[in-house]
Amino acid sequence: MRWLLRKDLLILARSRLLLALLIVYPVAIALLIGLAISRTPARPRVAIVDETPPGETLKVGNERVAVGQYARQLFKQVEAVEVSSRAEAVEKVESGEVLAAVVIPPDIAARVSSATEQAQLEVLYNGNALQQSLVASTLDSALAHANLGFSAQIQQTAGRVIGSLLSGGSLGSIGAPEDLIGLSRIPQTLGAIIAREPHGRERAELERIAAFAGFAAQNLSLAERVLSVIGQPIRVHSVLLHGRRTPLDTFAVVVAVSVSLMFVCVLLAAGGVALEREEHTLARMLRGLVSRETLLVEKTLLAGGCAFVIAFAMLAGIGAFVALDWSRVGLWVAALVFGAAGFGALGVAIGALAREVRAASLLAFALSLPLALLALVPAGSVSSGFYDVISVISFVFPFKASLQALDAAVNDASPAIGVSLVHLAALTLVFGVLARVGLKRAE
Predict the structure, then answer these.
(1) Which DSSP helix (H) or strand (E) runs through 378?
(2) Which of 123, 173, 185, 248 has an alpha carbon 20 to 30 Å from 105's alpha carbon atom?
(3) Helix, strand, or coil here: 222?
């Protein structure tokens, strides 16, 4: 096995272009997949036309909220390009310099402050349906967030006003009394006055006023809680049943490394076995130099070792930019070793069944990419019956098990890493047996 391994390493060293392509291509594909998973869409460029007078504010209770503050919240999720007029905004949209334009009308403050008229923003699009969808969804999301923050400001101001009405004091508004008695103190004050009044019409009227004041104070005290419920009628309480929440960035790292491990391992193992057959050396070696089992183990070790080095280097390199828990490095190694073994066994099985290097490489590539994509299909995105089929396919090939093992090792996700390692060991054995059966066809 030692001499056989040395021969394969010399062949790799002489084929520098092939070796470079074998390393660079899977890593590039893996990083592109990881980037597509982890990166959110870029912020669309949107022209902003603010037609409101400078310093315009909205009067809410005894406070004023700047329109500019509301606008900053609204346009935080887009790349805002400020323009001076609507005509300039139209020109930028038509030229394609921006995807859309938003016009803030001069009467927006008056409409919002009136509490009877709905304020309105004008959005200008071009004719591209995809761009319209992107900008519309971004602005809708931004408007929802901005309205939520603006609603919170209204609730806070209204809460302070209600508190002043209940407890008394000064509202701080022009024309309001300096020292209000407070609605909650009226029943007690009226009670003392009523106790000194003789029975009669005036005392009955005061008692009616005191009863109303008590009822109003009791119900007004609930207004702050009602405002908070109206502002956020439904809250989300997240409960994670298994494992822990995995950040998308670190999960993308796991996907990228797993894809790279799969491509390098499967392509190298399949090509190595097929090369021996194509060069007519397989039959001669099997006559007495090495056994079939030794040959398969050597090809698996060669492919798995090379893939392990590349995958671990990727994981360590990405770890310089993404926060990873290096105290779990032992689990990383275990996941990569078992994953490399599973992919290596799959590769030698493909190489044993194919007669040529080109056929083996094409089959390995054609099989690997769909397996990776199928393993990433989330539950609920397809029908339950189709998802069951996908789950069965993913179960009998090593990509999903390898992905789960590495995810558990890096992110402490579920299922536990032990389950995935046992799964990979079983798949390694199964594909090793298939490769051994395939070599019986050797000439």
Answers:
(1) none
(2) 173
(3) coil
Residue 438 and residue 239: Cα distance in Å, rounded? 49
Q: Summarize pLDDT for 234-258 with one digit per residue, the tens.
A: 444 444 444 555 666 678 788 888 8
Average pLDDT of every residue of the chain: 75
- Name the β-bridge partners of 63: 60
**Residue 235 contacts residue 148 (beta carbons within 8 Å):** no
Strand, coil or helix: what is 125? Answer: strand
C-alpha atoms less than 13 angstroms from C-alpha of 207 in its C-beta half-sphere: 10
Residues 6+ apart with CB under 8 A from 363: 270, 350, 353, 354
Please provide the DSSP assignment of 14-31 as one string. H-HHHHHHHHHHHHHHHH
CA–CA separation, 401 vs 258, rounded Å?
Answer: 10
pLDDT digits (tens, 9 = 90+) for 13-31: 666 666 666 666 666 666 6
Largest Cα–Cα separation, the chain: 126
Class at the top of the CATH hierarchy for domain 45-169: alpha beta
Average pLDDT, integer, range 324-351: 91
Distance CA 158, CA 155 (A): 5
Is the Cβ–Cβ distance between 70 and 102 less than 8 Å?
Answer: no
**262 dihedral zone (left: phi>0; alpha: psi -120 to 50; beta):** alpha
**Token pair recorded at residue 177:** 């009394």
- 236-240: long-range contacts, CB 8 A cutoff, minimum separation 24: none
Contact assessment for residue 150 and residue 73, using Cβ atoms and an 8 Å cutoff: yes
Q: Given its phi and psi angles, is residue 437 left (phi above 0), alpha (psi -120 to 50 degrees) or beta?
A: alpha
Three-class HEC string of 247-316: CHHHHHHHHHHHHHHHHHHHHHHHHHHHHHHHCCCHHHHHHHHCCHHHHHHHHHHHHHHHHHHHHHHHHH
The residue written with tokens 């054609």 in the block is 366
Phi, psi of 57 (to 5 degrees): -130, 165
Q: Residues 258-291: pLDDT tens digits? A: 888 998 889 888 887 877 777 666 666 766 677 7
Coil, helix or strand at residue 49: strand
Q: What is the pLDDT of residue 335?
A: 95
Tokens, residue 271: 């090509």
Q: Return all residues near 163 (Cβ < 8 A) that are at least 6 apart.
A: 224
Q: Which of 157, 178, 161 is nearest to 169 (CA)?
A: 178
